[in-house]
Amino acid sequence: MNAIVDRNNVKVIGQGEKTIVFAHGFGCDQSMWRYITPAFQEKYQLVLFDYVGSGNSDLSAYQSEKYKSLQGYVQDVLDVVESMGLKDIIFIGHSISSMIGMLASIERPDYFDKLIMIGPSSCYLNDTNGYHGGFEQSDIKELLDMMEMNFAGWASYLAPIAMNQPENPTLSKDLERSFISGNPTIAREFAEVTFLSDHRGDLAKVTVPTLIMQCSEDSIVPIEAGEYLHSHLKNSTFLLMEAKGHYPHISHPEETIRCIQEYLERNRKG
């Protein structure tokens, strides 16, 4: 157990028989949940971790070969759950972690009670068949090239667009700092895996009840991508938030907490 705890910088807080696992998105780490966790730690055991290559994880455990698809990150989630002997968890994933958690739940549905997806997308690329993911192939290439040529410039360009809180520039600055704190090579590889992934074909395999929390005016995930998920995930609930941007757990923690609590209250077992 300790090897995984150290590798993924696992932290456990709170008390309660039921466990919530929080999984951060690309370019971030577990500190992104700091405005959310206080609302849940009295009723739940909370498990926070960093994916290998992110935050304070053990960077020496990162292997390009392992993490060149989302499967490497799925393994991180399963390793954390297994090493702690967890079952029946509530998995809250932001952005690409929504898909990572979903894939983990397909592999081991017995580990998962519910999936809560914040700003999820099963495919970021527009498709000729009419699917609207929000990005053209050329957009992603430009983004990846920018990361390679000018990592700091990429971070300062993307952070305010993704955060979409012009009235509170501190939030964008915090996100920029998070982006730039990562290893540039690993960050670029994670970006490539994220933005070029397509898991629309896996949606039919999901059996775990799912909440899709879609942000309004999200420059990373258009509403159509969230609606697509909802129409292809059986037993899913779609919620359009008032929060703008791609990081409601940072910019609008009160609304984010309320949405999660109301869903869990409505869908309590027993």
Which SSEs are present, and which pair or pack?
Blueprint: H1 2-7, E1 11-13, E2 19-23, E3 45-48, H2 70-83, E4 89-94, H3 96-107, E5 112-118, H4 137-149, H5 151-163, H6 169-180, H7 184-195, E6 210-216, H8 223-232, E7 236-244, H9 248-251, H10 253-266
Helix pairs in contact: 2-3, 4-5, 4-7, 5-6
Q: Tell me the span between the first and last alpha carbons.
A: 31 Å
Report mean pLDDT, rounded to a whole number.
95
CATH topology: Rossmann fold
- Largest sheet data: 7 strands, mixed
User: Would you identify the regions where 5 or more consecutive residues have pLDDT less than 50?
Assistant: none
- Give the total of domains: 1
Helix proportion: 40-55%
What does the radius of gyration come to? 17 Å
Categorize the overall geometry. globular
CATH superfamily: Alpha/Beta hydrolase fold, catalytic domain
Give the number of helices.
10
Strand order of the largest sheet: 1-3-2-4-5-6-7
In CATH, the architecture is 3-Layer(aba) Sandwich
Number of beta strands: 7
What is the string of helix and strand elements? HEEEHEHEHHHHEHEHH
CATH class: Alpha Beta
Structural class: alpha/beta
Question: Approximately what portion of the residues adopt beta-strand conformation?
Answer: 15-25%
Pfam family, one: Abhydrolase_1
Protein name: Sigma factor sigB regulation protein rsbQ
InterPro entries: AB_hydrolase_1, AB_hydrolase_fold
Organism: Lysinibacillus contaminans
